[in-house]
Amino acid sequence: MCGIVGLFLKQPKLEPELGALLSQMLDIMCDRGPDSAGFAVYGAGTPGFVKLTLRGPAGTDFAALGDKIGHPVIARDTHGVMSVPVAEETTVRAALARLAPEVRVVGAGTRMELYKEVGLPADVAKRFELETMSGTHAIGHTRMATESAVTTAGAHPFSTGPDQCLVHNGSLSNHAGVRRLLAREGLEVTTENDSEVAAAYLTYRMRGGDSLGEALEHSLGDLDGFYTFVVGTESGFGVLRDPIACKPAVMAETYDYVAFASEYRALAGLPGIETARVFEPEPAKVYFWDRAA
């Protein structure tokens, strides 16, 4: 059992409140996943630059690391964000591997920043100062581990492509076979978590030319099991439940936003919720919103 939350803003007026709203939603889902938590926020980006979200052991001196690499790092607890020119990304990744092999790149994109840690969701949100973050959309997850260890690496979200991330409640029955397919296609899955397989599968489909909506449609035929996915891209937000739809899910849509949660109580504090269209997403139906559309 895990908890999922997501918020996609249609109007700019709520963008300064995105982090505070998601933090509240994440906290309410604590009892569905007290082992670990994480979130991805799509904030401001700079054309021609890519944000690298780094994760290091406790006590990592991100300022010193930034000095060595030649690009400053904005530190938040065990994570840091480094913005580098797109043309230098490969060089910077190689330098990071050489100078600080204990530090991992957990997300990359023009706008996405990704944070996750072991601990109660409210504590994780506070450690990374989620309440202070702004942006257009965000997704979050509270984890109760069932099939892999309680580790930071095993926490959600998972990101396997630029500005792409996924959170998942459920279990895939054919993840081993999909993992082998992805390996043949050059996509490495680094954890035992089946959710990372799902994220990499969507990356694989989108590399082949699918939109997020099309990739989710294909997953209905290629991924077996019980699942609810919430997925973010640079400009988009998608939701999919498997054909049986045994995992709880509820959505709310207003003129200002689209919100998702595993339970309604995580939506109850959102502004304007009393007039929102509240509905349960249908089984095997792709829901997708895109700011670029």
TrEMBL record:
Q: Which UniProt keywords apply?
A: Glutamine amidotransferase, Transferase
Superkingdom classification of source: Bacteria
Q: Which InterPro entries match?
A: GATase_2_dom, Ntn_hydrolases_N
The chain positions of domain Glutamine amidotransferase type-2 read 2-292
* SUPFAM superfamilies xrefs: N-terminal nucleophile aminohydrolases (Ntn hydrolases) (SSF56235)
UniProt protein name: Glutamate synthase domain-containing protein 1
**Species this chain originates from:** Ancylobacter vacuolatus
